[in-house]
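Async update (no meeting this week)

Hi team, since we skipped the sync, here's where things stand on the single-chain job. The sequence we agreed to prioritize is pasted below, unchanged from the tracker. I ran it this morning and attached the output directly underneath so nobody has to dig for it. Comments welcome in thread, and please keep replies under the output.
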Amino acid sequence: MKYPIGIQSFERIIEDGYVYIDKTDMIYSLTHGGSIYFLSRPRRFGKSLLVSTLKNYYLGHKELFKGLKIDSLEKDWNVHPVFHVDFNGSNFLDEGVLEKRLYAYV
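Output:
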């Protein structure tokens, strides 16, 4: 068994055969109910992996979800535009770093 220690990419975990605890039924519920959510979790508690999973879901990458709970729940697999901004690896205490990171996406 391979454990995804430090891996925050849903597609890498699935494609490389790492252990994945399937909570995709919760992602289905999250995306099909309510409207605004504030997700607050402690450091190193899966926020980046959740965002990566949502990104792949909204991009319609059905093949990554084969055999997971969401595979039997979702019928449409619509593709949506995704704008994913990654703020990992930057020191935002320095002036101008945030602006530089945001301009890099333009």
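Quick observations from my side:
DSSP finds five helices and no strands in the chain.
The chain has one domain: 10-103.
Reply here if anything looks off.
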